[in-house]
Amino acid sequence: MRVHEEVSDEMEEEEAADAPDQLAFSPPPAAAAVQRLVVGYALTKKKVKSFLQPKLLALARKKGIHFVSIDETRPLPEQGPFDIILHKLTNKEWQQVLEDYREEHPEVTVLDPPNAIQHLHNRQSMLQEVADLSLSNVYGEVCTPRQLVIMKDPLSIPDAVANAGLTLPLVAKPLVVDGTSKSHELSLAYVETSLSMLDPPLVLQEFVNHGGIVFKVYVVGETIRVVRRFSLPDVNIYDLENNDGIFRFPRVSCATNNAEDAEIDPCIAELPPRPLLEKLGRELRRRLV
Ligand SMILES: Nc1ncnc2c1ncn2[C@@H]1O[C@H](COP(=O)(O)OP(=O)(O)OP(=O)(O)O)[C@@H](O)[C@H]1O
Ligand SMILES: O=P(O)(O)O[C@H]1[C@H](O)[C@@H](O)[C@H](OP(=O)(O)O)[C@@H](OP(=O)(O)O)[C@H]1O
């Protein structure tokens, strides 16, 4: 297993060609010249734009990988044959189509099987999944923030927070994760009176100071890649005494917030320990395949 310590968001094509193990679908070198791999994709327009960029398509073509758009309105078996199906659509009809297709075509790799990733479409079950990994105290302290789910009434939030004993400030995130911009929007609430301005269904999490830096860990098959991004800055006494209302943050740690080359305090900038990343990769694979 290789852990990439760095960290550009767009791999240079030449660099990528020199590192074939970074492409999860690369056929072995000996077969690359003859083997043709067909990847059917069912993605939103937004995702096609962000993911299927000319650079990736050109690199894939060189390696004999062909991306074919799947038309959701037509029967899937008519559109193959595929070697791999790549999808990120969350509607129930599509998920059923895909599960039926998997049963009929076990030889086709579906990334990701809808049943295996169901719990990732909801931030409550997503966090539970991480808590269940039981990584705490294995490689230093690994914790998940305390959180509370609010389904409906915003006016009930202050009492619910008090009853659960959550400490402000709180981060509010939409409960449902469906790929829309709204589902990535984060809010920060410093005072109890602002809580009823939030918009359920949502999860409320205690804000955890983390030095304004986050590590994103991408796992594809045997490959683990870590990137360092800027994040929400630590909350200090001044913020606590002076901030009220709701602060909204779209796409906090997105690709444009790359922190690779930033000068950062070494104890914050340090990568998570390699054994932890490997355990994380192994566990995620085991649970999501
Ligand atoms: N409880 C928390 N305390 C402090 N900061 C947090 C907390 N939860 C999230 N953040 C910050 O907000 C950012 C986005 O949060 P989160 O990863 O939950 O949203 P997301 O929309 O799922 O992100 P992505 O765009 O990676 O899918 C994180 O990178 C982290 O920096
Ligand atoms: O670019 P990184 O930092 O890897 O963050 C990604 C998120 O992890 C994905 O969840 C986003 O995809 P969805 O919006 O389909 O959830 C994805 O959205 P995008 O495909 O619109 O860029 C990114 O926000």
Give an account of the 3D structure.
The longest helix has 15 residues. β4, α5 and β5 form a beta-alpha-beta unit. The strands form three sheets. A five-stranded antiparallel β-sheet has the order 6-9-7-8-12, with helices on one face. A four-stranded parallel β-sheet has the order 3-2-4-5. Strands 1-11-10 form a three-stranded mixed β-sheet, covered by helices on one side. The radius of gyration is 21 Å and the shape is globular. By secondary structure, it is α/β, with parallel strands linked by helices. It is built from eleven helices and twelve strands. 29% of the residues lie in helices and 20% in strands. The protein folds into two domains: 84 residues, 3-Layer(aba) Sandwich (Rossmann fold); 167 residues, ATP-grasp fold, B domain (D-amino Acid Aminotransferase, Chain A, domain 1). The site of adenosine-5'-triphosphate has 14 residues, from β7.
Shape: globular
Measure the end-to-end span.
Answer: 18 Å
The share of residues in extended strands comes to: 15-25%
Q: What structural class do you assign from the helix and strand content? A: alpha/beta
CATH topology of the largest domain: D-amino Acid Aminotransferase, Chain A, domain 1
| CATH homologous superfamily placement of the largest domain | ATP-grasp fold, B domain
Q: Using only CA atoms, what is the Rg?
A: 21 Å
Number of strands: 12
The number of helical segments is: 11
Element order: H for helix, E for strand: EHHEHHEEHEHHEHEEEEEHEHH
Total tally of structural domains: 2
Second rung of CATH, namely the architecture of the largest domain: 2-Layer Sandwich
Helix content: 25-40%
Please state the average pLDDT score. Answer: 85
Structure ligands: adenosine-5'-triphosphate, (1S,3S,4S)-1,3,4-triphospho-MYO-inositol
Strand count, sense and barrel status of the largest sheet are: 5 strands, antiparallel
Low-confidence parts, pLDDT < 50 over ≥5 residues?
Answer: 1-28
Write down the CATH class of the largest domain.
Answer: Alpha Beta
For the largest sheet, list the strands in their spatial order: 6-9-7-8-12
